[in-house]
Design goal:
Layout (H helix, E strand, L loop, with lengths): L4 E10 L8 E9 L3 E5 L6 H8 L7 E6 L2 E2 L5 H9 L1 E5 L10 H6 L8 H5 L5 H13 L15 H14 L4 E5 L7 H18 L2 E5 L3 H7 L2 E6 L2 E6 L6 H8 L13
Parallel strand pairs: 3-8, 3-9, 6-7, 7-8
Antiparallel strand pairs: 1-2, 1-4, 4-5, 9-10
Helix pairs in contact: 5-6, 6-7
Bound molecules: adenosine-5'-triphosphate and magnesium ion.
């Protein structure tokens, strides 16, 4: 493992039913502050891979080394410690609709609280200041006291990023963060994630269906097909032939048109 590696996944497999492999011997690494996209057709195993990293699901085989600690097998306090340093950003935002933007951002601090303080939503002045600053960093200082259900999709996703930031993570896992957004909001969300990598040194592992965004924003792109990693390279290496290999020549949904 290179000393610069934050995450090193080796021979990771996951079978949900005991026979078919949703993830099949995947190996990859991620450096601190690196921005890596994962592309592949529906069912290729992108979400399975992301969810294994913070142990939302348990892999069947393999190793995940995060910041020098083996993730597979972690339990209790150590697992909670791991999850504090790995934030998640979701396609459907996972906000509490009736709470304000800033209350949603503060949820990112819950992993640092004991259960009573968490249940009572007791946050320090510093945490509140940091939450407001995170909202300003994603351009939403103005919306701090608006209810989440009054925000647009793009704004909701930026609240999701602010919530991820206040967690003080080493890694953000984003599972199709722009799949529900229009092109302008998509670009803004990608820019904020890229900013987190560049300015805060937070590594980002982002699953995407839009190859052109993966090429434009990533240091490296990983292609998955049938649970196997079939491409791992810089965007310039992602040729139409490679894209065809990732998505399958016969796949009618393959995004060839954007790339040829
Ligand atoms: N909870 C589950 N139980 C059983 N099978 C599952 C489960 N989650 C995913 N799978 C299967 O594992 C495979 C990989 O699914 P996964 O959700 O990781 O793909 P994906 O690349 O994220 O797809 P999409 O682009 O549609 O989100 C698929 O065959 C899927 O049906
Ligand atoms: Mg998925």
């Amino acid at each position: 493992m290179s000393t610069a590696d934050l995450l090193r996944i080796t021979n990771l497999s996951k079978s949900y039913d005991g026979s078919t492999k949703a993830l099949d011997g995947a190996s990859l690494s991620l450096r601190r502050g690196e921005f890596v996209s994962i592309i592949g057709s529906s069912g290729a195993g992108k979400s399975t891979l992301l969810r294994c990293v913070n142990r939302l699901i348990d892999p069947t085989e393999g190793s995940i080394l995060f910041d020098g600690t083996e993730v597979c097998g972690l339990r209790g306090r150590k697992l909670r410690g791991l999850r504090r340093r790995i934030s998640m950003v979701f396609q459907h935002y996972n906000l509490v609709h009736r709470s304000t933007a800033i209350e949603n951002v503060l949820q990112g601090r819950l992993g640092y609280k004991n259960s009573l303080a968490g249940a009572l939503s007791l946050f320090s002045e510093e945490e509140k200041r940091n939450a407001f600053e995170a909202l300003e960093q994603v351009g939403l200082g103005c919306c701090a006291y608006m209810r989440a259900d009054q925000l647009s999709g793009g704004q909701k996703q930026r609240v999701g990023i602010a919530r991820a930031l206040v967690q003080d993570p080493l890694l953000i896992l984003a599972d199709e963060p722009i799949a529900s957004l229009d092109p302008i909001s998509s670009r803004t969300v990608m820019e904020h994630l890229r900013w987190a990598a560049d300015e805060k040194g937070i590594a980002c592992l982002v699953s995407l269906h839009q190859v052109e965004y993966a090429q434009q924003f990533s240091d490296r792109v990983i292609g998955i097909s049938g649970g196997k990693i079939v491409f791992d390279g810089v965007p310039a290496e992602l040729t139409p032939a490679k894209i065809a290999e990732i998505y399958g020549e016969d796949n009618p949904n393959a995004p060839f048109a954007e790339c040829c």
